[in-house]
Specification:
Layout (H helix, E strand, L loop, with lengths): L2 H5 L4 H7 L6 E3 L12 H10 L7 E5 L2 E2 L8 E3 L9 E3 L3 H9 L3 E4 L7 H14 L3 E8 L14 E8 L1 E7 L22 E6 L3 E4 L4 E6 L4 E8 L4 H12 L3 H4 L11 H18 L4 H12 L10 H4 L8 E6 L5 E5 L2 E6 L2 E5 L4 H8 L3 E3 H7 L7 H13 L3 E6 L1
Antiparallel strand pairs: 1-11, 2-3, 2-6, 4-5, 6-7, 7-13, 8-11, 8-13, 9-10, 9-12, 14-18, 14-19, 15-16, 16-17
């Protein structure tokens, strides 16, 4: 499942130009189209095999957060460690009972717990060039978990099973930020009522007031959060660049005999310096590229090959998966630079068509990479070498086709 499949049949370009940041949007589809992302068997497996703490899992009922001890008792590790380390184990009985009574189960960062959800997150990151965080919400009955609120991120609600009622109000403060000195006023008037059924997606822009209620049904939905850069982020980055300018590091002048001429001259120089920075060609593109290259990406391991250095060999088939959806690729006099996860990786200039090809896709066969990443100078052995170098750098992973 990828981002284009979430929007289908609406093209991604149409969604971005007509709906992104403009208002709520319902995207309808077949009732069973999301069941393969997170089937019940996988939800149960997540609950059984992973450790959770209060920062990762919540049970909420009627706007009240249950104490984690009510559904996840603390137990000693087995075997018991010398340090007395303890962990929390979810109680199947308590969890089921609270859900039967109308509570909502809320698990954060599910992209770290499911390969299918991780692939969806990577696809979204490839489009927005921002980290995507995905949360799982399971509810039963008709008791709302959370009160009416706004989110400081754009949200895509993916209804996997059942139905959810959404009451949506217009933003009362445009483009609110988590760090705002003022809170968004509570909404007045009647909300727009939306019943989200399985197979549908609801897009909720940042700052939109909403109240979500189970529709007397067993409901499972994923909440995808995407935080996009703002003018405040740009100005903070600009201030970092201004550290290189003497006039910006200089002490502010004090008035002399009540005269402020020196202050006015200093302010003019500051203004000219800032304007010069703002007038730099492609300033926003430069900022976004710097931000994207610094973002961490989910690590994918290719052991034992990357330990033994065995390479790909000449036989058998291989699939190649690009792992750094927010990577930035540049050419400089010394060759090709890939910046990702806060690190720089250098490759030969001949690697560019291979890297561009892989970045545009989720998974490709190695043979396809060699055929379609057109460069007459590249031999199949060259493509294998490039892909192997990418794997060693953690930017791609290769999987043998059985």
């Amino acid at each position: 499942m990828d981002f284009a499949s979430l929007l289908h049949p609406m093209p991604t370009e149409s969604f971005i130009s007509d709906h992104l940041g403009r208002g709520v949007c319902v995207l309808e589809g077949p009732f069973d189209r999301f069941e393969s992302i997170l089937p019940w068997a996988q939800i149960n497996d997540i609950l059984e095999r992973h450790w959770f703490d209060a920062t990762r899992i919540r049970i909420v009922k009627g706007h009240r957060h249950l104490n984690i001890s009510e559904f996840s008792p603390s137990i000693a590790t087995y075997p018991i460690s010398e340090s007395g380390l303890r962990r929390r184990q979810l109680s199947a009985e308590s969890l089921s009972r609270h859900l039967r009574d109308g509570a909502t189960l809320h698990i954060k960062s599910v992209e770290d717990l499911s390969e299918e959800v991780a692939e969806l997150a990577s696809s979204i990151e490839r489009v927005f060039k921002e980290r995507a965080s995905i949360e799982l919400l399971v509810s039963y009955g008709e008791t709302p978990g959370y009160q009416a609120h706004i989110d400081y991120v754009d949200v895509f609600a993916i209804q996997i099973y059942g139905r959810k009622k959404w009451a949506v109000w217009e933003p009362t403060r445009k483009w609110p930020l988590l760090t705002d000195p003022e809170s968004a006023p509570k909404p007045e008037g009647e909300p727009q009522e939306i019943v989200l059924t399985s197979g549908n997606v609801l897009y909720v822009p940042r700052g939109t007031w909403h109240l979500v209620t189970p529709a007397q049904d067993l409901s499972v939905h994923l909440s995808v959060s995407v935080s996009r850069r703002t003018g405040i982020d740009l100005m903070k980055w600009l201030v970092e660049g201004l550290h290189t300018m003497e006039i910006c590091r200089q002490d502010l002048p004090m008035p002399v005999d009540g005269e402020s001429a020196d202050q006015e001259q200093h302010l003019r120089q500051l203004r000219e310096t800032v304007i010069k920075f703002l007038d730099h060609p492609n300033l926003i593109d430069r900022f976004l590229a710097t931000h994207q290259a610094a973002q961490p990406f989910r690590q994918v391991f290719d052991l034992p090959r990357t330990i033994t250095g065995s390479g790909l060999g000449n036989g058998g088939g291989w699939n190649v998966r690009w792992c750094a959806p927010m990577a930035v690729v540049d050419m400089d006099p010394d060759g090709l630079v890939v910046r990702a996860g806060g690190r720089c990786h250098r490759f030969g200039a001949e690697s560019l068509p291979v890297i561009r090809f892989l970045m545009a896709r989720t998974t490709s066969s190695l043979d396809t990479v060699g055929e379609e990443a057109i460069n007459p100078a590249l031999q199949p052995s060259d493509v294998r070498r490039i892909v192997w170098d990418l794997s060693l750098a953690g930017l791609a992973v290769v999987e043998e086709i059985s």
